Amino acid sequence: MGRLARVYAAVAVVVAAVAVAVVVVKRRGKGPKWGKVRAIFTDVERKCATPVARLRQVADAMAVEMHAGLASDGGSKLKMLLSYVDNLPTGDEKGLFYALDLGGTNFRVLRVLLGGKEGRVIKQEYEEVSIPPHLMLGGSHELFDFIAAALSRFVATEGDEFRIPEGKQRELGFTFSFPVKQLSIASGILIKWTKGFCIEETVGEDVVAELTKAMERQGLNMRVTALVNDTIGTLAGGRYEDSDVLVAVILGTGTNAAYVERANAIPKWHGLLPKSGDMVINMEWGNFKSSLLPLTEYDEALDFESLNPGEQIYEKLMSGMYLGEIVRRILLRMAQESSLFGEVVPQKLEIPFILSICDIVAQRGARLAAAGIYGILKKLGRDTVTSPKQRTVIAMDGGLYEHYSIFSECVNNTLRNLLGEEIAGTVVIKLANDGSGIGAALLAASHSQYLEG
């Protein structure tokens, strides 16, 4: 069972246990011990409160930071990165396309056969490969050679239905979910490794060039057509299924958002305007920070002791990686100050990240996520009634949203409250699984070198 699977399997147990504790504290608890517990719970509830008025202020602050990030690099905590994706899938795409999804200790290779409007996705196949730990800390050539070799073996299993026409080069969408400074649709400089990787010689290099050289060493005739991250892949996959998709959000172990912006509304864009007039923006919204965010001493302690203090504050309030850790810190204080679990503090409460999710903390995160989405809609002018009414679809991916119903229901209900019933009826959140895989292949198709015109 994978790490995330174990986390989600524990959610129901943890929530049930915490719910019982809350009932005991609020309904039956008596005496000095329970008075202390009640005081801590009351304090947490108060500090985590997210009334609608405050959420609207958070949304306004998000929209302001979006404008600032689009105006200049470094002008905002939101990076508002240009993705150079100016053509999203339309459904007309035809042919065979590959995807490589590298975002952690495993990577996936995928191929998809597209048949245009009528055929859509005719067939798709994929394979998942584990990266040996020593390659995560070794040399750049060794890592990319391993990836290219796996890709080459996968290509060799093509059935007759996947054969490409004579003289055409295979095309690949490369999902690379690490910090990158994008230079074009098919090139980007690695800023730093995360998620346990540490290969210094790759930092500052074009990751597409590194992969291309490795594919050449394998004798694999394949071209990277699009370099994207998982959020943009989710947006592409969502757009392929629904032409009204305008925004993509990831709510899982981490969090991010991307959306379609008008190119003429990006002051820092100095190139020729794309034919479509659009540009997909990777917000990197996990780094959003504002005095309006309801931070507690538990959040501040978590941030101080994290590997990136002062960064990713929004993410630390609402992503699956951190929600349980906040709960652990609250329960640890209860155990220390009120002997909630007896005279001896349970050893497991001393271990960082041992627990999963509690309603108070999860609902705060969900409501802040909804405020962020509302801020994007405000920036795009989709928070008001238009004539005729515009339908806006948000492609959503991530295990936190998909598997934790209290969280997803809270996101949906809060967004509806912020928008109001009339506008809320035009905004739809759609679950978009596997966006980082199929979406990358679709972006390879929509940016194919063989497109006419």
Structure notes:
This protein has 453 residues and is of the alpha/beta class. It folds into two domains: 3-64 and 288-431, Hexokinase, domain 1; 94-228, 2-Layer Sandwich (Nucleotidyltransferase, domain 5). Helix content is 43%, strand content 19%. It has helices at residues 3-28, 31-47, 52-71, 116-119, 140-155, 207-217, 230-241, 297-305, 313-318, 320-338, 359-379, 399-403, 405-419, 421-424, 435-446; strands at residues 81-82, 94-102, 106-115, 121-130, 170-176, 180-184, 187-190, 222-228, 245-251, 255-262, 278-282, 392-397, 427-431. The strands form three sheets. The chain has a six-stranded mixed sheet, sandwiched between helices. It has a five-stranded mixed sheet with strand order 4-3-2-5-8. The protein has a two-stranded antiparallel sheet with strand order 6-7. Strand 6 (180-184) and strand 7 form a beta hairpin. Helix 2 runs antiparallel to helix 10, helix 3 crosses helix 11 and helix 11 packs across helix 13. The longest helix is centred in the N-terminal third of the chain and has 26 residues, at 3-28. The radius of gyration is 23 Å and the shape is globular. The termini are far apart. Its EC number is 2.7.1.-. One of its GO terms (molecular function) is D-glucose binding.
